[in-house]
Amino acid sequence: MTALLKLEGLTREYPGVRANDDVSFSIGAGEVHALLGENGAGKSTLVKMIYGLEKPDAGRMELRGEPYAPVNPQAARAAGVAMVFQHFSLFEALTVAENVALGMENPPKMGELAKSIRDVSETYGLPLDPDRIVGDLSAGERQRVEIIRCLLQDPKLLIMDEPTSVLTPQEVEILFKTLRKLQSEGTSILYISHKLEEIRALCDGATILRLGKVVGECDPKTTTARDMAEMMVGQTLHVPTREAGEAGEVLLKVENLSMASSNPFGTTLKNVSLTLRAGEILGVGGVAGNGQDELLSVLSGEAKTAKGSVTFLGADISNLGPNARRKIGVLAAPEERLGHAAAPNMSLTENAVLTATIRKKLSKNNFVNWRAAEGFAKDVISTFDVRTPGPASAARSLSGGNLQKFVIGREVMQDPKVLVVNQPTWGVDASAAAAIRQALMDLAAQGAGLIVISQDLDELMEISDHFAALNEGRLTAPRPALGLTVDEIGLMMGGAHDMEVADV
Amino acid sequence: MDFGSINPVILLASLMVASTPILLAALGEMVTEKSGVLNLGVEGMMIFGAVCGFIAAVESQSPAIGFLVAAIGGAALSMLFGVLTQIFLTTQVPAGLALTLFGTGLASLLGQNYQGISPPRMPEMHIPLLKDIPFLGPILFEHDAIVYLSILAVFAVWAFLKFTRAGLVLRAVGENHAAAHALGYKVKLVRFAAIGFGGAMAGLGGAYISLVRVPQWTDGITAGIGWIALAIVVFASWKAGRILIGAYLFGGITVLQLNLQAAGAKVPVELLSMSPFLATILVLVVISARRHGASNAPAMLGRIFHTS
Asked: Which of A53, A77, A102 is opposite residue B172, by nearest beta carbon?
């Protein structure tokens, strides 16, 4: 296999961090190459350099034997490098065709473009209407827009950054068929993920990054997922354990709840019912944007709902706001760390006061007891191993994983009766994620009821007693998590959302 | 009430003149906001444009040079806002308010020696043939060049945003600056251009007040028109066509209530004076009270863009 792209000694430094340190590897023509690593290992910086968004401080790249140094993404696209982003680079208020046009160098007239979008989307089994507004599309459909935008430019190298994090298992299968078809046509793919089983199923070669350095290369077809994980983390993985407890009394009950979203592009909850018992963890899966944020806001008290739709220990709480719910022990940790779960410019102590003041009695007669507040923040920091100079640091100065540990720890340590968390380990490295899951399971073992909303199915299968899925604002009936197959889970999540397998 | 003394042809023709400053300023601000920048300094840029245009026209005795200098002056002042918000990343709301205060003060200083002077008259451009259409002719086709220009600008802005590549990029930047950056578009450059266009249009609008509508220089001559332009952009849901409706509605009712006051209508003057504001807001609220209407705002409006 001849090398399509060759990287030699790429180095990129940011103030205080060496994001990439002497990174070298090569991707063959028609090869699917995996780039593995924890969050913060330098994967994003590396692909930004390949895509022309960042310039290396040292090192060189070669594309098809020629020196390659894109000054901007346009130059990278002209050289045949296309990229599907992890957080979609789409414009919600614009149509599919306009979004595609923005990612092309010389887009044809809108009419012709719409026609080629239809053609390509049918060839690759990714149906898409060019005139629809992207804000109205599901996460899976949005990804199709990104992929088609790349395919229309006939790329030689396609970079995919965590493409499956928003797809159902069936959609993943279809995406893989599309990628294999591209591969058979001679396109190389650089595939970034930390889902090891996927990489084993799809990729021909893998490069593993840790703290900016290449720590190993392997053939994923013959290496076990556990070995790859340990190369990524650089230590032996601790798998959380849990003692199964008896399900206790009914704590929280949601009955026939429907609610329109406050966000124009949000999802309307339709007839959601669930029951949560003491000591139980209910895992809620589903592709992002199917009502997760809305469900959290209903349970946390941010959105008030029809009388009698949410009850706690038999008492109606549907009309109580977040603080009133905190008082009786119903707590929540939302997904977005900066801006929703924490106030970015405030210190950790101040952030601790914001949600813990009621249960931890951090204020008296409306005056904050700062000594007690700082003590509580310090407790959270030490118990959850949050790496920070101290409780006076601003929330935004913490890395994503550390802040996540803090916002989860802050709720767990308030001794909740019911805790609702959304994406508890999103963007957290494997060992910290294991610690967060362990804390959640310990909390359930002490008799609290937990609802864990997550897009990480492995995580949900690991910790849940019952599993339910959100699909277009509807919640499926919860089923015991033990013994559920991937196919069953996929169907609960809405199957393949009208996608079809590439037929050429 | 006596409507008899009000000539509908003159009323409608002066409606177009009264609306032109708001229309120009609101169109410029719409383009700025479409790129995701909220510039509350419209009033300041207008009054600065008004004084620049007035001085240039008086000194050169050419209204055309006056308008040109007004546009340049408005754009130059807007660059101050651009440097503050795009390079030093200050918050846009206070920067815009500061621009209004600064522009008003600076205009007052510059205009001190120009009070009580008459500017050169703007020649009217009567469109041959069309002006002879009965009733409509004198209303629509016996104006000066800037009135025609402002209406052309409505179509130009609409077509630019809807059909051109540059317009698409501008909307994309206002919709999701991080994504536009990731695709390789120059977010700050696009925003500087949009801010500059907004400034130039506000400057033109201001000069139209000092050179045609009033026509003379006095302190505080724009009298809040810039704020109305800002409100019209919002209630028009960032659509060029609705901005035309909003501006003409406001201008129309302003002219009508002035005529009614002059005709001695038995309605309290205060009520008449507030009627343009009430009616404009009411109508535009009704128009925009549909799905995606009020929430049609560019998603990045007022947000600061950090590279990386």
From this structure: A102
List the single best residue of B33, B175, B295, B303 to mutate versus A (max A Cβ within 10 A): B175
**Summary mean pLDDT of chain A:** 85
Beta bridge partners of A191: A34, A160
> Which helix (H) or strand (E) element contains residue A204?
none
Nearest to A72 among B169, B184, B299 (CB): B184
- On whether residue B251 sits in a domain, the answer given is yes
- Average confidence score pLDDT of chain B: 90
- Judged against a pLDDT cut of 60, whether residue A498 lies above it is answered with no
Q: How far is A322 from chain B (nearest CA, A)?
A: 26
Domain that holds residue B177: 8-288
**Other residues' Cβ atoms within 10 Å of the Cβ of residue B98:** 17
Q: Provide the strand spans (E) within A126-172.
A: 157-161
Eight-state DSSP code of residue B211: I
Distance CA B69, CA B55 (A): 9
Cα dihedral A395, A400, A404, A405 sign: negative
- Ordered structural domains, chain A, with CATH: 3-233 (3.40.50.300), 250-492 (3.40.50.300)
**Contact yes or no for A217/A189 (Cβ under 8 A):** no
- pLDDT surpasses 70 at A46: yes
Q: How many Å is the Cα radius of gyration of chain B?
A: 19
* pLDDT of amino acid A502: 44
Q: Is residue B300 part of a domain?
A: no
Give the pLDDT confidence score for residue A242 in this predicted structure.
Answer: 59
B263: in domain: yes
- Which residue from B168, B295, B296 is facing A102, i.e. has the nearest CB? B168
> A53, B168: Cβ pair inside 8 Å?
no
Question: What's the confidence (pLDDT) of residue A92?
Answer: 86
Q: Using one digit for the tens of pLDDT, what is the confidence trace for A285-344?
A: 887 778 888 999 999 998 888 888 999 999 999 999 999 999 999 999 988 777 788 888
pLDDT, one tens digit per residue, over B115-156 is 989 999 888 888 888 888 888 888 888 889 999 999 999 999
- How close does chain B come to A245, measured CA to CA in Å? 46
**Are the beta carbons of B276 and B254 closer than 8 angstroms?**
yes
Chain A interface, mutation test: which of B183, B187, B189, B308, most A Cβ atoms within 10 Å?
Answer: B183
Chain B contact for A13 (CB, 8 A cutoff): no
Number of domains in chain B: 1
Amino acid identity at B61: Q
What is the arithmetic mean of pLDDT over A186-207? 87
Round to whole Å and give the CA distance between A92 and B10.
46
Q: B184 and A85 in contact by Cβ < 8 A?
A: no
Which residues on chain B are in Cβ contact (under 8 Å) with A94? 168, 171-172, 175
User: What's the pLDDT tens digit per position in A197-228?
Assistant: 888 888 999 998 888 889 888 898 888 877 88
Measure the CA–CA gap between A201 and A347, rounded to whole angstroms. 44
Q: Residue A179, Cα to own-chain centre: how many angstroms?
A: 21
Helices (H), B83-186: 92-110, 136-140, 145-163, 165-175, 177-182
* pLDDT tens track for A414-423: 999 999 999 8
Q: Is residue B79 part of a domain?
A: yes
Q: Is A16 exposed, middle or buried (0-12, 13-18, 19+ CB in 10 A)?
A: exposed
- Residue-wise pLDDT for A434-446, tens only, equals 889 999 999 998 8
